[in-house]
Structure prediction request, 677 residues.
Amino acid sequence: MRVIVAEKAIAAKRIAEILASKAPRPIKEGRTYAYDIGNGTVVIPMSGHVLNVDYPRQYNNWRATNLNQLVNAPLEYKPSMRSIEQAVRKYGRQAGEVVIATDYDTEGESIGREALTIIGKRGIAVKRAHFSAITPEEIKHAFSNLGELDYDLADAADSRREIDLIWGAVLTRYISLAAARLGHDFLSVGRVQTPTLALIVDREKERRAFKPKPYWELAAIFHKGKDFEASHVKGKFWESPSKLYEKLKPEKSGTVKSVRKSKKSLAAPTPFNTTAFLRAASSIGVSPSRAMSLAESLYTSGFISYPRTDNTVYPSSIKLRKIAESFRGGEFDKEAKLVLAQKKLTPTKGKKRTTDHPPIHPVAPASKKSLPADQWKVYELVVRRFFATLLPSCELDTVRAIIALGGEEFAANGQTMRIPGWKAVYTYSKTKEVELPPLAEGGKVALKSLSLLAKETQPPSLYTPSALIKALEEKSLGTKSTRPEIIKKLADRHYIHGTKSYSPTEIAFAVVDTLEKYAPDITSPAMTSKLEAEMSLVGKGEKEKDAVVADSRKMLGEILTELTANYSKISESLRGAVADASTVGKCPKCGGDLRIIVSKKTHKRFVGCSNYPKCNVSYPLPQKGKVVPLGKGCPVCGAPMIRVINGRRSYEMCLNMNCPTKDSWGKKKANKPKRGN
Prediction:
């Protein structure tokens, strides 16, 4: 028997349908299905990692476990999905050959090796199918050119899993115990997660410490057949030019001193690698973790290529024209015709070229009706980016006119599109066109108005999803596969909030401030990037997995020694921050602090006064979702306001259940929950 192991159920079904000479026969195995495709061949699915790495059970009690022992405690790989494990073992032990057909990356190699571990049969022939898209052409080519399983890449994946478990378990337990924050509200610390959080917190510190500096600008509106704007060539005035403004204001007209016309070329974007894709998706309102999830679904359904890649150069093996032709007559017929009208397709190239997977690109057409709305949004982005990389530059005609007004110079800039090029298909990139009237040197233009604009310098921007993904890549924090989940975990653990930009919570400040003071290595990208480099060496076969894991344990042990020496100071700092973070406002009756409290008897949360039992003021709370104090009172009744975040839904509410703004559960009628990414 020949057994083909796929990474997920949908991938197994797709591969079976492609390889079978007739419809594959599904065989129910517990909660999963295997697929008999004839000729003694069965396709069986894994479900991602089926063997979870964890500590032995005796280390489960957080309070009773010595953390120094936990640093060096043994690890176990335990089965997590019994029906899949049984199916893999059942068919694998009947097999003479096993073909690993999981995703071609480090995790895919690890999952493939897990299948072999479950099978546990010696002397079995093992082959590897390498493909970048689940299409008939790619799958058939892969199975006609089988390779070998890369055990070094599997070791690299497992080294990351083990290191992340060890660091996360030890540091999370330490911080949670020090803060007396256990149960569902434990404080999470991670090898990559915490340096990422430090970036967000440090950016917010910069914003809070920022002192705006005033400046002024002079702006004029001239008229020559039509109104047009011009700005003083000096730009910013750091001292108010009020005297100059008063001098120029009476002027009736200006003189065109010069007119310079030129052409500007905007190069087409490069092909999508994972980072560029995630950044583009965030710009259209799809979070990194959601974008990756949707891309994976499109990949396993056979619509786009593998979404985890560093490559920004299309390999010569990709038939670009053939892909473009496949879109004729469909949703992107107009765009396809633009591309195909070119005699030769010359795609753009990025700086990163790898050989594992091509850039993300469409591999089959889909209709808008055939996909859920969110999948279509991502699919359309990938298709339009692909077409954009095959079209010429966008060409603009620009003009810059210098106008003399009372001895001062003002500049008017215009630009109009001459050749749309790639912008005709990549509708996410907008070019503002400003058409100036015909201007000739020496000609007069009427002054319609002159404005003195008072402005201030702005603090550094909050991290947007796009900017954070870019920063993580630049600092070698995480991998292209893990970065979206890192950001999601920070949100899930209530360290950050926001969708268009990320703001840290007070608990985030407390954790980062404490670690930066007493164990700065944990918050530093340098430590994490060093470990990433070590794990890369494992993948290249230049270093042993066990040696890298042992080195990381030693590094963690040194950090834990430093933390232990400062336990009392750290505990005091964190406990104070936890108390502050649970305060939602002042008690209207006695002036005490209104705090979020969890009942020891019912385990339900509510808001109560810190002066209880002298003061019995309390308010109920929704039992699901994160509660974020807003630091403001209700505009109607004055009671404290909170935000409730439940998954991707959030809403503001007043704590006073009798407030006129309420419906049955305290949601403001004018601000119903909105769904976001």
